[in-house]
Amino acid sequence: MPLENSMFRAPKDTARLDWAAIAGHLAAHGLRLDRETPPRQFTGGLANLNFLVSVNGTPAVLRSPPPGPLPPGANDMAREHRILSRLWRTLPLAPKSLHLCEDAGVAGHPFILLEHRPGVTLAGSAPPLLEQHPDAGARLGPLLVDCLADIHAVDPAAVGLGDFGRPDGFLDRAVAGWSKRAHLSAGPDGSPAPAVELTEWLADQLTRVRPGPATLLHNDFKLDNLILDPERLEPVAILDWDQGTRGDPLFDLATLLSYWTEAGDPPVMHDLAQMPTAGFGFPSRREAAERYAARTGRDLSEFRFHRVLALFKLAVVFQQLHDRYRSGTTSDPRYAGFGAIARGLFDFTHDIAQGRGF
């Protein structure tokens, strides 16, 4: 399949939006949606919908949450627009947000219009493009770490984000919030024992952790949120800022490493199939963390707490997705196995909390 065609869903699998209403809204703001160029939905993702469109004769990306009810604070287009309408001025890899529509009546949810950055994303554990670059991980691994360090080096005040988010108490809210979500999404049998023990461990460790100075956070940074040049595998853009905030930067590092599978990991990490880091010459999680520390000068002596919190969050996310399937909110067959992934992640996180692995 040609590379370009593999980037888009077939018309029969494309989500339906009211393009006439969208065109009318954009026209009222001086933006012309070129209806003779049909919108094409990008492949991939379990969350937001992304469409390549033409506006005023120029390619752009229309980004909207999926249909149906959304968890509180999730898929926040206003948050993403606030970040990306400013961040491009100092972080060249941030695409510029061109417009925010806050009226959910137009497309079912608020949406944003983004500058289009052409390139490819590498999703899953074995992206076909990497078969042509079997040792690319030796370059992509450090590149990922360096991009994250560049995000954390941004002065939020310099781009109008000095009052963004609530950095004070960031870790406290994360522990309390994800512990609550774990309980609410546990199902009729309640939370598995490792999840219960982890909530207690996190609450106990929280009293000992000293949060670092707050920085801008991406909050879901991983390889498939980078657009790359397909020939040189150099970064073109950093995507998916709808969870962005300010807080402890080590949590952002821990989030990246929660997706970073190694060859010797338990099966659940391979079942995640989030990044191809178990092969292709990628460095280990520990090596990635050490590079980040060297680049930023940050102390990793308390990093196990952040690592456990980020993995615990990931387990809860999969448990929440499975809860949607169990309750009938979605019939997507991919969600059926997410309960087993959540349980496996709770087990792996418990091992990390007990010092068995990094």
TrEMBL record:
Pfam families, per database record: APH
Coiled-coil parts of chain: none
SUPFAM superfamilies: Protein kinase-like (PK-like) (SSF56112)
Keyword tags: Kinase, Transferase
Highest taxon, organism lineage: Bacteria
GO molecular function: kinase activity
Domain Aminoglycoside phosphotransferase: 40-286
PANTHER family per record: HAD FAMILY PHOSPHATASE (PTHR47829:SF1), HYDROLASE, PUTATIVE (AFU_ORTHOLOGUE AFUA_1G12880)-RELATED (PTHR47829)
Protein name: Predicted kinase, aminoglycoside phosphotransferase (APT) family
